[in-house]
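Exercise 7. Given the encoded structure of a 540-residue chain, write a plausible sequence.
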């Protein structure tokens, strides 16, 4: 199956569905997500009979999100290195196997708490491996201007499943027990496996990282030195920590606060899913009216107010309304964080950036699920929800120090690079030092230093080490920028990753230079000794 990306004149909420590969994967993922919701309802309710304590019930949710904390970064590295279709396919096979095993054990009546938690962890591991690849292929399937709408549709699809799945799951648990939920979940993976079997994505870039570890290192380096990504990660972690209480303790809201059973549990999950679908459908319009930070603040306030209402409600209609609002608020917050990551990083690192975002967001959810479950056991479910609402409101304080914004899309476009491949690489342990010389008169000095500082941050972000700028003591007009990389191949990768934003800084530095172009010299370097030298040539 192939797909050609046609660019609609006016991108809208539904425009990504014009691309048939995106449409096929989107529909198949909805069926898979419905199965996952059946699994979650069945596992949570089964645990209430195997070990009916708030902490153990919350542990089901915690172990389904813990793999995202553990495996997201390696999965993101794989998504940026190899065919993302293969990553998605392997994840589906893992989840199919674990779900089928759980279903077989449930029909045989041999499920224990340990087996339930172990297989829940394996299913969560498959979801952790799948998530970065699935989210990062969005930029391959639709034009960049449609990425926010595609993310919104993904969120909408998931929450359509979260609306339908729990309602069906609650009824099935009440009528036939959790085993039917587990079996249907296993079958739900077949649709996406079928689509992935016939999809043939385009070729990947030639200069991928040497290994998964190297790709992980590059991704972490980029994130640590990218201010927009750092801000999203911190803010999403706080939001995830608080929002985790909703799913983690939903079964106990139905049982303890409302005095109801499994069908009402499914109804509550469905109300939250319906609110999430509504929120996802409105996401495009809200993005037109509010900036990214404004959307995040709205999500926090709305979600906190609804959590407080759940803590005090003992009436089913009021709780359902509050969960509808919670669903919309959670989707607004998490999808805005997701879009902010994708719009703030170039394609070569998108899988790893999304993985790091998910690792911290769902890491917050994992810790939060355990924490709020523990608080619910000690202080009661209502008090836990009220404390969570107050905690979520305090995260608004981060908005003044860590506001989330998006960079201009053209800044992240790959710039043309003119570095040749004629400089020989060196054995492991022998690096390459690059030296750029500038002749800058006094009237250009301030502008030059400002541009050099900004360019230094980008070089470090892209993996350069020991970036320094030296001024000649004999001639104050002479400046030398120097940095080192692990190998010549790594240097070629960094040149290939150069964005238009970086090129603009290079052009500004060249404009400050008195002469045609700043000369660039490269040489191998080991144990403080220069080994060989390449004749100077221009980068720009």
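Solution.
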């Amino acid at each position: 199956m192939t797909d050609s990306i046609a660019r609609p004149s006016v991108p809208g909420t539904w425009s990504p569905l014009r691309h048939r590969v995106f449409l096929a994967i989107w529909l198949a993922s909805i069926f898979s997500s419905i199965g996952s919701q059946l699994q979650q309802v069945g596992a949570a309710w089964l645990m209430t009979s195997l070990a009916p304590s708030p902490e153990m019930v919350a542990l089901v949710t915690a172990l389904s999100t813990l793999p995202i904390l553990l495996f997201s970064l390696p999965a993101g590295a794989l998504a940026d290195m190899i065919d993302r279709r293969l990553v998605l396919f392997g994840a589906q096979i893992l989840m199919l196997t674990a779900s089928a095993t759980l279903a077989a054990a449930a029909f045989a009546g041999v499920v224990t708490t340990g087996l339930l938690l172990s297989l829940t962890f394996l299913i969560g591991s498959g979801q952790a491996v799948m998530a970065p690849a699935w989210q990062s292929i969005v930029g391959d399937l639709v034009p960049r201007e449609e990425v926010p709408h595609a993310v919104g549709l993904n969120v909408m699809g998931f929450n359509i499943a979260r609306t339908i799945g729990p309602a069906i799951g609650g009824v099935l648990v009440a009528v036939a027990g959790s085993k039917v939920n587990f079996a249907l979940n296993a079958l739900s993976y077949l649709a996406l496996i079928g689509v992935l079997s016939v999809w043939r994505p385009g070729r990947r870039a030639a200069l991928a990282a040497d290994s998964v570890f190297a790709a992980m290192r590059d991704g972490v380096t980029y994130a640590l030195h990218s201010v927009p990504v750092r801000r999203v990660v911190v803010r999403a972690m706080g939001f995830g920590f608080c929002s985790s209480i909703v799913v983690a303790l939903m079964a106990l809201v139905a049982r303890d606060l409302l005095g109801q059973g499994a069908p009402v549990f499914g109804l509550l999950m469905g109300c939250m899913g319906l609110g999430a679908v509504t929120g996802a459908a409105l996401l495009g319009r809200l993005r037109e009216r509010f900036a990214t930070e404004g959307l995040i603040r709205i999500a926090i306030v709305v979600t906190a107010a609804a959590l407080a209402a759940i803590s005090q409600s003992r009436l089913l209609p009021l709780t359902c309304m509050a969960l509808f609002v919670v669903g919309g608020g959670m989707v607004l917050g998490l999808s805005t964080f997701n879009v902010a990551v994708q719009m703030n990083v170039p394609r070569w690192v998108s899988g790893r950036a999304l993985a790091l975002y998910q690792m911290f967001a769902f890491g917050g959810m994992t810790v939060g699920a355990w924490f709020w479950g523990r608080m619910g056991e000690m202080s009661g479910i209502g008090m836990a929800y009220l404390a969570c609402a107050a905690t979520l409101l305090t995260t608004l304080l981060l908005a003044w120090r860590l506001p989330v914004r998006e960079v201009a899309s053209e800044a992240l476009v790959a710039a043309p690079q003119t570095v040749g491949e004629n400089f020989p690489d060196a054995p492991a342990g022998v690096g390459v030092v690059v030296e750029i010389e500038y002749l800058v008169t006094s009237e250009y000095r301030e502008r030059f230093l400002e541009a050099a500082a900004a360019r230094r941050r980008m070089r470090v972000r892209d993996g350069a080490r020991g970036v320094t700028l030296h001024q000649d003591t004999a001639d104050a007009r002479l400046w030398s920028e120097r940095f080192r990389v692990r190998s010549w191949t790594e240097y070629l990768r960094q040149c290939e990753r150069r964005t238009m934003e970086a090129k603009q800084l290079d052009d500004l530095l060249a404009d400050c230079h008195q002469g045609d172009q700043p000369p660039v010299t490269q040489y191998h370097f080991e144990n403080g000794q220069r080994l060989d030298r390449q004749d100077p040539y221009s980068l720009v």
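Remark. The chain has a mean pLDDT of 81. Students should compare their own answers with the one above.
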